[in-house]
Amino acid sequence: MMRIRFIITLLIALFVESRQEAFGQTADTLSLSDKVIRSASFATGFRGEVWRNPALYYYYTPYTWTRLDVNGVYHDKGKASLKQEGDKDTRIGVDVNSFVILSERDRVFGSAGYRSEKQENVLWNENIDWKLIAPYVTGDSIGGFLKGETYYFNGGYASESGSWTWGITGGYRASHNYRDKDPRPRNTASDLSFALGAGYRLGTYRLGVSADFRLYQQKSEISFLADKGSISVYHTLGLGMDYVRFAGNQTGTKHQGIRWGGSIGILPADTEEGVSATVSIDRMSMDKKLSNANHLTLLELNTTDLKGNVTWMRELQQTEHLAVKLDAGYTVRKGTENIYGEAGGSSYGALISTSPGMKVTNSRIAVSGLWEKFLTDKGVWGGAIVPNIIYHRLETDYNAVSRFVHLSALESSLRARLQYQKRQLRLTAEATGGYYAGLSAEYSLPGLDAAKSSARTLLANIDYLSDSYSLVGIRLQGDYPVMKQYNLSLSVQWQAAYYKKCGTARYAACSLGIFF
């Protein structure tokens, strides 16, 4: 209850303080309606990764805004899911985002939120933050639902002085999840991050560099109220393998990770015209320890993430934009398994060697386009078209046991938006369509016992990841001004993915928001 009161107080504080005249914030000339339209436009965030630099984020919008949303999501994935993430999600949450122009030289920005979630039918994963620590989780063949909560806060400040701009951001996320039925995992995760950036104007462009730091920790413990019987807890290694020596009763674990990263980018002085580009690199080192075995370091995971982005944008008219973006990414995750000698007394043995674990490489290249015409106070119609093509290549290799899974896919989608203004009421309709084509699926899993639960889970995951599907979706939103300085919005969204082998996955969401 204390944390809930804290986050609610924090949200209210952000909601109110962004409008305080005591800050002496600079007045902007855009109407409330124009701010709502521009902040929600595709063009505003289209440049993507370049906004990672807090110094360049100073130029994100030339106006002050705050948005508070209460939202809910229901996602029924069925067989089209990774078993470690469950086949059904239900989430409710509240989020607030704000960008405030304090003066001609100073900006503050931030976000905060709370989310409650329930995952159902989770198998072979009793941890939280699967995507971050996979495949090194603790799992069992029973699984079940997982209930959880997340609280987060991010805040930043940026300032301009002559040709220089500098900025700093800091954020914190706290998450926990649990199950009140055997087996009973209790996981808590803390995620602290900082970033520092600088920018310098060179003619019609700004050059920016940034550095960031992240500190992550997760503590986990699994308990049983009933007789544990033959249920064993395993420490998975990927591709159906587990650390045999420590299987059974080692139910307490701790993940600790540190990440360092940086980026370099360029941004046009006029953010709505010209070319922007950014290159970033992140390196994260994570280890998994056994809490009840003298904090023995069982496994290590090193992740290197490279990203590049080039965006060209042109303002055809004051309310019309054309843009093209090229995104590329390459991620390598390498595991290391620690091998220990014979145990003696209270000792679990000395570290005698290490062995290369599973290696995962994920390559991605995407091309996106954008045409958008803003709806204005004087206009009746507005709209946007966003085409997208993505190539994926995922390679998972475990050379120590001669196992591998190699997948590739090509994804294409088209998103269209239409807006209509009728007096003070503004209506938005969006339609999305796409196709995900599995191009290749090669794998070799010698020694895999298909009768085991872990093996069946692995094969089901491969079927899902290699499957092809078509995607359709719609989103409807209505906006209406309240008391001249607030905008009230209500949106609903529905989406369905039709898989060739894994059936149908359905997604529904709704949101109630206030913008000012």
From TrEMBL:
Pfam families: DUF6850
Superkingdom per UniProt: Bacteria
Domain DUF6850 intervals: 54-516
Protein name as it appears in the record: DUF6850 domain-containing protein
Native source organism of the sequence: Phocaeicola sartorii
Classification of source organism: Bacteria, Pseudomonadati, Bacteroidota, Bacteroidia, Bacteroidales
